[in-house]
Specification:
The structure is a single chain. By secondary structure, the protein is an alpha+beta fold. The protein is built from 11 helices and 4 strands; from the N terminus they run αααααααααβαββαβ. α6 packs across α9 and α8 runs antiparallel to α9 (223-251). The radius of gyration is 25 Å and the shape is elongated.
Length: 341
């Protein structure tokens, strides 16, 4: 299996046009899978548009679309088709953010993010319990067995997985993910916490508008329970957002940093590392306490996805090198990161 993978990589390196087709085809496939996962999680767990099942604020541009839909209902559009409204608003809200992605992050990033947004808008419209009875059964079963908690956990995993897949291939699901990705590139830190912070506002607004809807238009049941329900959903929305952030940061390792320290007898190791990667290297001369021989401590900080290749390179230079790694939360100063195309 390893030989087949190595041969395939070698073939792609020799055939640039085939490599370009393969790379873009893979990104398009993963973008489509991401859009499917998000639409499934949103329509089945977060906003199933079924009578008797209350929607949960999902955050992001989908959450903003929920807020705007709630505002339209407050303004008198009581018969509004929420599924169509979510789909249309989700697309329109992402248009100005595409400009930010194009100018501030990268052209390929912006193009494939737009493709993902279009796919997600379409899937949200049609992959719904209204049209697919099986999804209705899933919604009813999950709600009956686990209530809000199971819905936010499953929904959070779906949304987090959708975003993480895109981040893994250096694109995004659009909306607040673009803002979070832009900030994370500038601050050189994890994406998930920025998504959670940006989502908090839309979740809070959705809760407030849901309460106003009950106050203004009343309810067929107990008024106190109807007012308390949005507050309860807000608490579960917090669990949803943290679940999303955890899944994203567990899978997306682009912004994670790792300190590599190698102890070697070869002074040239530091020079070889400098010539074969974009990161700075520090070399400190030391002496072994047991042997008394001269040793060199070679230290560098790299992105998490580079660790395996650098360790492999060190062992090619010195197979006896003693290597340790340590995950770090943040770096300050100049640090090279591969630019997003």
């Amino acid at each position: 299996m390893k030989d087949w993978v190595a041969n395939w990589k070698a073939y792609l390196q020799e055939h640039k046009k085939m490599h370009l087709i393969y790379e873009n085809g893979l990104i398009f496939l993963m973008s489509t899978i991401s859009a499917l996962i998000f639409a499934f999680g949103f329509n089945v767990f977060m906003a199933p548009t079924l009578s008797g099942i209350s929607p949960i604020a999902s955050g992001g541009m989908s959450g903003v679309s929920q807020v705007l839909t709630a505002i339209l209902r407050l303004c008198g559009w009581r018969d509004l088709d929420e599924n169509i409204a979510h789909s249309l608003l989700y697309f329109l809200l992402n248009v100005p953010l595409m400009i930010l992605a194009f100018l501030g992050i990268g052209k390929r990033f912006a193009i494939y993010t737009l493709i993902n947004v279009i796919e997600t808008s379409i899937f949200i419209r049609f992959i719904t319990p209204i049209y697919i009875p099986l999804l209705k059964d899933v919604t009813d079963l999950v709600t009956a067995e686990g209530g809000y908690l199971s819905r936010v956990l499953f929904g959070g995993v779906c949304t987090g997985l959708s975003s993480a897949i895109c981040f893994k291939f250096e694109i995004s699901t659009g909306g607040i993910d673009i803002i979070a990705y832009y900030i994370s590139l500038r601050k050189r830190t994890n994406v998930g916490k920025y998504s959670a912070l940006c989502n908090g506002l839309s979740v809070t607004l959705f809760t407030l508008f849901s309460i106003l809807d009950v106050v203004i238009y009343g309810t067929s049941g107990d008024m106190n329970i109807a007012i308390a329900d949005p507050f309860v959903r807000l608490l579960f929305s917090v669990i949803y957002l943290f679940t999303c952030a955890m899944v994203i940061d567990a899978i997306n390792i682009r912004n994670k940093k790792v300190r590599i320290e190698a102890v070697t007898s070869l002074r040239s190791l530091g020079t070889e590392l400098v010539h074969n990667n974009h990161h700075g290297v520090t070399v400190v001369e030391a002496h072994g306490a047991y042997t008394g021989q001269v040793r060199y401590i070679v230290t560098m900080v790299v992105s998490a996805y580079e660790v395996k290749s650098i360790i492999r390179f060190i062992h090619q230079i010195d197979e006896h090198a003693f290597i340790q790694t340590q995950t770090i939360n943040q770096v300050y100063g100049r640090f090279y990161m591969k630019p997003v195309e």
